[in-house]
Design brief:
The structure holds 2 protein chains of 2 kinds. Chain A is α/β, with parallel strands linked by helices. Chain A has 9 helices and 12 strands. Chain A has a 6-stranded mixed β-sheet with strand order 6-7-8-3-9-10, with helices on both faces. Chain A has a 4-stranded antiparallel β-sheet with strand order 2-1-4-5, with helices on one face. Chain A has a two-stranded antiparallel sheet with strand order 11-12. The mean pLDDT of chain A is 86. By secondary structure, chain B is mostly helical. Chain B has a single domain, classed as ABC transporter involved in vitamin B12 uptake, BtuC (Orthogonal Bundle), CATH 1.10.3470.10. Chain B has a two-stranded antiparallel sheet with strand order 1-2. The longest helix of chain B has 35 residues. Chain B is globular. The chains are: A alpha/beta, B mainly alpha.
């Protein structure tokens, strides 16, 4: 299904957010369509994570307009919102010793009543989420005994168990080693392409954006300064505008899209001699 | 495991009234003993005291558990937010000015303590409210600041007061169940503890979620700011009611949730009933020891809990070092 005509699931118009006198977000405007994989990039302090938090209504004093599935954000109760948007934080940080199954089951909160127990639907959603993320085998493990990559997958499972059709991820692959990066990235790709989950991810990793995203939104100092397809973003002059530094690009052998090559200085000893 | 705790608690509650400076035969419970004095002691002093001990322990433990979840900090106690200093200040003022009146079955000093606890609570709440809602870090700071400020005011009052009154204030701060005679006090505290615990029990899922993080909880659908306010008030109800009558009894609120977490795990759906039962039973056991060890003298129960508190912290420390 062509994405360009799909329903707009998130519409942000002129979003501004200040903390005291400091402007974190300035008149941010963009939209996300159903089934898209949108990646937010930008230098440190650009406001990417803050934008995510505004979309989840963690920050409530933002000005401007956010619509989810065509309705204003303020029309939703926090529970209703949680049924549509699943938040996946970074895998670092402190955790209480819940089991993986307990944690993923907590994701069903927006569907549960205070004293009710889990319905068959709830249990099925939890099991399905864990199966899709390959975390079923970890069900009885304690969260604090998992590796970063495993924990990230568990967090994604919990967000999927919520029944959310939109996943919002904050730096999903930072702090992960290569194998786990690969696992998490393929998990997101599968969820997006096979199950039609809309993905909005914040990342430092430009290459992740280049290879996975349908669209890239670049922020700098709280403003959207570029929006477009990966091929359009991964141009040296565009990247220089975003990051205020000259990056070297090389074409990826399989994807045909330019990716960023790490900077280095020429060595004094000539290695190829 | 939960059942084991329940059985243990019931056992403690059943046996405790019979132990003491004067041993009472079980037959006094159903009026079959010939010892009228024993029966009098049982019904007027022992049973109310055990009931109060259970309520106090349960209320403090539940509040401690709720705060530990809300602040994601294992060192949080029911008194972290200044409620005990507020109550102590209220009590100090009541004792200093020698007020004597009864309202709702509570003596003047208790009412002043309750007012003080309520005042401290509102002050801390007011100081931490921002447009965005609560910051728990700010709340902790505000609680500590209010505690210190009130403590200095108490010292001032103690200095200005006469000898007898100052002594009474000091004894009050040690916390104890020895003022309990008859069921009047118990009935006065009952609504506070029961309503506070019921609210906390209602919020078990939210408590679980908040321990995973504010943002994550919000992402799952919890109205974080509102939930924290409700937990804050419920816990303060428990603590205020208990402290008004018994004074600040330390360590129960800190230790009981920790011990229960080791026994039943961090899921609040099981942790809450476990903590309430263990907290209550534990305090009754401590109080039984307090009034029996040096009979006929009675130690304030706060001393026993504090004596147990030190080694408990050491044990916690050793546990962590073992893991780290």
């Amino acid at each position: 299904m062509p994405i360009s005509t799909a329903e707009i699931v998130i519409q942000v118009n002129d979003l501004s957010f200040n903390v005291g006198p400091k402007s974190i977000l300035r008149e941010v405007t963009f939209k996300v369509r159903r089934g898209e994989y949108v990646v937010l990039v930008g230098p440190n302090g650009a406001g990417k994570s803050t934008l995510l938090r505004c979309l989840m209504r963690v920050h409530r004093s933002a000005r401007g307009r956010i619509d989810v599935h065509g309705r204003p954000l303020d029309d939703y109760s926090q529970r209703e919102l949680a049924r549509h948007i699943g938040y996946v934080p970074q895998a670092g940080g402190e955790v209480f010793p819940y089991t993986v199954e307990q944690f993923v089951t907590m994701g069903r909160y927006p569907h549960l009543s205070p004293f009710g127990s889990l319905s068959a639907d709830d249990r099925r959603a939890v099991e399905e989420a864990m199966r899709r993320t390959g975390t079923l085998a970890l069900a009885d493990r304690l969260l604090d005994t998992l590796s970063g990559g495993e924990r990230q997958q568990v967090y994604i499972a919990a967000a999927l168990a919520q029944g959310a059709d939109i996943l919002m991820l904050d730096e999903p692959t930072t702090f992960l080693d290569y194998r786990h990066q690969h696992e998490v990235t393929s998990l997101l790709r599968r969820s997006n392409r096979e199950q039609g989950v809309t993905v909005v991810a914040v990342t430092h990793d430009l290459n992740h954006a280049a290879l996975e995203a349908d669209r890239v939104v670049a922020l700098r100092e709280g403003r959207v300064i570029f929006e477009g397809k990966p091929l359009d973003v991964m141009q040296a002059d565009v990247l220089e505008r975003i990051y205020a530094t000259r990056l070297t690009l090389l074409e990826h052998p399989q994807a045909g899209i330019p990716i960023v090559v790490p900077e280095t200085e020429a060595r004094e000893n000539d290695v190829s001699g | 495991m939960l059942i084991l705790i329940a059985v243990l608690t019931v056992a403690v509650l059943a046996v405790a009234p019979l132990i003491g400076g004067m041993p009472i035969p079980p037959s006094a419970l159903w009026g079959a003993s010939e010892d009228d004095v024993a029966e009098l002691i049982l019904w007027k002093s022992r049973l109310p005291r055990v009931a109060m001990g259970f309520l106090a322990g349960a209320g403090l433990a539940a509040a401690g558990m709720a705060f530990q979840a809300m602040f994601r900090n294992p060192l949080a106690t029911p008194f972290t937010l200044g409620t005990s200093s507020g109550a102590a200040l209220g009590a100090a003022l009541g004792i200093h000015f020698g007020w004597h009146f009864d309202l709702l079955g509570m003596p003047a000093v208790s009412l002043c303590a309750l007012a003080g606890a309520g005042g401290a609570m509102l002050l801390v709440y007011g100081l931490t409210q921002t447009r965005e809602g609560f910051s728990t870090a700010t709340m902790l700071l505000a609680g500590v600041a209010v505690s210190f400020f009130f403590s200095s005011l108490i010292l001032l009052i103690q200095y200005l007061s006469d000898f007898t009154r100052t002594f009474r204030m000091l004894r009050w701060v040690m916390g104890g169940l020895d003022q309990v005679v008859g069921f009047g006090d118990v009935l006065a505290v009952l609504p506070f503890v029961v309503s506070g615990c019921l609210v906390i029990f209602y919020l078990t899922r939210e408590l679980n979620l908040i321990t995973t993080g504010d943002e994550l909880a919000a992402g799952r659908g919890v109205e974080v700011a509102r939930m924290k306010a409700v937990v804050f008030f419920a816990a303060s109800l428990c603590v205020g009611g208990v402290v008004a009558v018994c004074g600040p009894i330390g360590f129960v609120g800190l230790m009981a949730p920790h011990i229960c977490r080791l026994l039943v795990g961090p899921d609040h759906r099981r942790l809450t009933p476990a903590t309430i039962m263990l907290g209550g039973g534990f305090l009754v056991a401590c109080d039984t020891a307090a009034r029996s060890l040096l009979a006929p003298t009675e130690l304030p129960v706060g001393i026993i809990t504090a004596l147990l508190g030190g080694p408990f912290f050491l044990w916690l420390l050793l546990q962590r070092r073992g893991l780290g």
